[in-house]
Amino acid sequence: MKLFKVLTMLIATIILPHSALADVAFSGYGSIVAGKTFGSVDDPLNPGETRDEILTADFYDVGQYDNDIKFTPESVFALQALVDLGDDLKFTAQLVAKGTDDFEPEFDWYYLTYQVNDSWSVMAGRRNIPMYYYSEFSEVGYAYPWMRPPSNLYWWQITQFNSFQASYDFEWGDYSNNLTFFYGNENSYDNKEMLFYDELFGGNARSVDEFWSDILGFNWNIAGDDFEVRFVYFQNDRDRTTTAQDGTETDSVPFDQQFLGFGGYYNFNQFTFLFDWNHVEYDDVVGTEYPTYLVSLVYNIGDFQPYIAYSKADHENTKTEAATKDLEEHYILGYGVRYNFHPSASFKIQYDKFEEQGNKATGWAYHGDSRTLTMGIDFIF
Questions:
Q1: How far is CA 240 from the centre of its chain?
Q2: What pLDDT is stored for residue 17 in this prediction?
Q3: What's residue 50's pLDDT?
Q4: What pLDDT score was predicted for residue 4?
Q5: What does the DSSP 8-state code read for residue 18?
């Protein structure tokens, strides 16, 4: 709540003295989602025991479904304020309340944008890292056909950063282009996802802090009449500190990380094909790599959009003498339909099959299979 208070004061400082001169526009979005899994599985971390099937629908916030109907894993509400300060300078702030945080509001975006000219703009502040095609609006359920972008693709413990960005808009033949360069850092204290993994594997940490520094990269969007694609590359340094219950701190061995991605969509007749491919590589002693991808087909018929989506995640070690792919591996196969019953709202229902393919002998099959049904309403205003 300290951050909430500080930022509330900051926004008030910016908006109130200029309220007579500045234009303030409010918008927002939300999702009310309920879901559950079915049945039980052998507990991969406790041989001989069983547990509910579990689907981690949101890795970053550890939003999980089990056999009980739950609304909290993915329900979210957000309010955004856009303040036009004049002379091509604007301030944006976004207040978000998530079910995984007991709907306690928090500012997750706040940044200044200056339009230098018709082609160039610069931005300073906090927003999502443009890692994936849907990264910058991954929580806006109304913006895509599925219930969510597949969680085993959008699964990193860092999703936002404090940054400087410069964007260049230009035309290339018949195509619109946007080239954005970015640099930033993120210190994620008491990282929820990393603490979850510590507890999952029997740890008893008080907190886990994750640090991504010198995040440097670019993304390039190309759009035509029937398609849009995005290329993204960035690199950064990674550090982690684990604090035990007695206060003892343990620092992990730092390493560099490289992220490469290519995603987008293509419309043809009544169909839309969507895809996202990513490759993450660590400069660590074992040569860790995470290749992941998504393919999805949507049929557009009036106000209805039935769809199918398949996402695959893998984990490989490439530098050791015993280089192996027998580590973490899984896929999600999802079927669903979106019904646009209102100009600003849609209803969705989706069935997901999560198939665990990790190596049981080495302990990497820790997610377990699951079958999950979710339904909900997404809206914007």
A1: 20
A2: 53
A3: 94
A4: 40
A5: G
Q: Are 74 and 80 in contact (CB under 8 A)?
A: no
Measured from the Cβ of residue 345, the count of other Cβ atoms closer than 10 Å reads 15
The widest CA-to-CA distance across the chain, in whole angstroms, is 68
Query: For the whole model, what pTM was predicted?
Result: 0.91
Q: Which residue pairs, CB below 8 angstroms and at least 24 apart, start in 114-121?
A: 114/88, 114/89, 114/90, 115/88, 115/89, 115/90, 116/88, 118/169, 119/168, 119/169, 119/170, 120/166, 120/167, 120/168, 120/169, 121/166, 121/167, 121/169
Give the separation between CA 346 and CA 337, rounded to whole angstroms: 10
Count CB atoms within 10 A of the CB of residue 276: 25
Length of the chain: 381
DSSP for 272-335 reads: EEEEEEEEEEE-STT-EEEEEEEEEEEE-BTTEEEEEEEEEEE-EE-SSTT-B--SSEEEEEEE
Q: Which H or E run contains 12?
A: helix 2-15
Angle ∠(236,242,243) on CA atoms, nearest 5: 145
Among 295, 292, 284, residue whose Cα is nearest residue 259: 292
Single-letter residue type at 88: D
Domain 2-380 is classified in which CATH homologous superfamily? Porin (2.40.160.10)
What spatial distance separates the first Cα and last Cα of the chain, rounded to whole Å? 26
- Do 130 and 219 meet the contact criterion of CB atoms below 8 Å apart? yes
Burial (0-12, 13-18, 19+ Cβ within 10 Å), 56: buried
Taking the chain (381 residues) in runs of 10, the rounded mean pLDDT of each run is 44 50 89 97 89 95 97 98 96 97 95 98 96 93 97 92 98 96 97 94 94 98 98 98 95 96 97 97 94 98 98 91 83 98 98 94 90 98 96
Report the helix count and the strand count for the chain, using DSSP H and E. 2, 22
Strand-strand pairing, 160-172 and 175-188: antiparallel
Contact 44, 50 (CB under 8 A): no
**Which candidate, 150, 142, 134, 155, places its Cα nearest to that of 294?**
150
pLDDT score recorded for residue 321 = 67
Question: Which residue reads 């808009």 in tokens?
Answer: 169
